[in-house]
Design brief:
This protein has helices at residues 38-48, 63-68, 73-82, 85-96, 111-116, 119-122, 143-153, 215-220, 232-240, 263-275, 281-293, and strands spanning 7-11, 32-33, 36-37, 53-58, 99-104, 127-130, 134-136, 156-162, 172-178, 184-192, 203-211, 248-252, 257-259. Strands 8-11-9-10-12 form a five-stranded mixed barrel. It has a two-stranded antiparallel sheet with strand order 2-3. It has a single domain (7-261), classed as Alpha-Beta Complex (Spore Coat Polysaccharide Biosynthesis Protein SpsA, Chain A), CATH 3.90.550. It is built from eleven helices and 13 strands. It is α/β, with parallel strands linked by helices. It starts with 6 loop residues before the first strand and ends with a helix. One of its GO terms (molecular function) is UTP:glucose-1-phosphate uridylyltransferase activity. Keywords: Nucleotidyltransferase, Transferase. It catalyses: alpha-D-glucose 1-phosphate + UTP + H(+) = UDP-alpha-D-glucose + diphosphate.
Length: 296
């Protein structure tokens, strides 16, 4: 069994160009999904899995991220004065979630480079990486299962999702071998965003990773790959071939995932989450049925 895993790294230095002009002055991670910013869902998932030490990799003009998880005493006092206990509870929750830390990425050299910026904070421990574009439904276990397998096998673990073969050019794609567990595979190779005709499978790497600390040394020696960026996929490809670091395993996720990475999927995510809310779901479903019924 590996050591307990308590640290999470959330890369959040991207420019969010798909959502311009909304993200001209506001980080894309702060775009609301119903009534919480996307990044809060991710931090809540980490905390639910016991990862209470959270490092956010930020960039320029990302001050709103730190502000969101900080106290706003004047707002809290105003809500207290009004007797608005429910909104005060929700405001306080975001301030009390985890031990939050921040470091700037500096040069925008890719996901691998962003993860490498966590080296001094993480040290010699295994840790989780959670991408803010992917929101995993709280009713479906993914990260907890990944941590369990990582500790059992003392290895690195990535999340995999079966996708339409026509969409392989949007993801890192894995070559895998079966294990004794239906949801666990051993990864033998990875390629970043292959064309459908070149893809080794339709198992896409999505935004959850549990990594051994050896990934930092590999990343330091990883040359820029596709797009001139340091690709985390390239580093994991090296680790997959190295039994000394336990190789790399994958968890095939079959639960609910909400992709907030582009405009259409962001809208779908809001609708899907709102439909399942106790406080909003009935009204949203009623309106949605009426709206769809009136479409030509």
């Amino acid at each position: 069994m590996g050591e307990p895993i308590t640290k999470a790294v959330i890369p959040a230095a991207g420019l969010g160009t798909r959502f311009l002009p909304a993200t001209k002055a506001m980080p894309k991670e702060m775009l609301p999904v119903v009534d919480k910013p996307a990044i809060q869902y991710v931090v809540e998932e980490a905390v639910e899995c016991g990862l209470t030490d959270v490092l956010v990799i930020t960039g320029r003009n990302k001050h709103a991220l730190a502000n969101h998880f900080d106290r706003v005493t004047e707002l809290e006092a105003a809500l207290q004065l009004k007797g608005d206990e429910e909104r005060l509870r929700r405001v306080n929750k975001s301030s009390d979630l985890a031990n939050m830390h921040y470091v700037r990425q500096g040069d925008p050299l890719g996901l691998g480079h962003a993860v490498l910026r966590a080296k001094m904070h993480v040290g010699h421990q295994s840790f989780a990486v959670l991408l803010g574009d992917d929101i995993i439904d709280e009713r479906d276990a993914l990260l907890s299962r990944m941590i369990e397998v990582a500790q059992e096998k003392n290895t690195s673990v990535v999340a995999l999702l079966e996708v339409d073969p026509a969409q392989t050019s949007m993801y890192g794609i894995a070559t895998v071998e079966a294990t004794g567990d239906d949801d666990v595979v051993r990864i033998t190779g990875m390629v970043e965003k292959p064309s459908p005709e070149d893809a080794p499978s339709n198992l896409a790497i999505i935004g959850r990773y549990v990594l051994r600390p050896e990934v930092f040394e590999v990343l330091e020696n990883t040359a820029p790959g596709k797009g001139g960026e340091i690709q985390l996929t390239d580093a994991l490809q090296e680790m997959a071939k190295d039994d000394a670091v336990g190789g790399v395993y994958g968890i095939v996720f079959r639960g609910r995932r909400y992709d907030t990475g582009d405009r259409l999927d962001y809208i779908k995510a809001i609708v899907q989450i709102a439909v399942d809310r106790d406080d909003l779901g009935a009204d949203v479903r009623s309106w949605l049925k009426d709206f769809v019924g009136r479409l030509d």
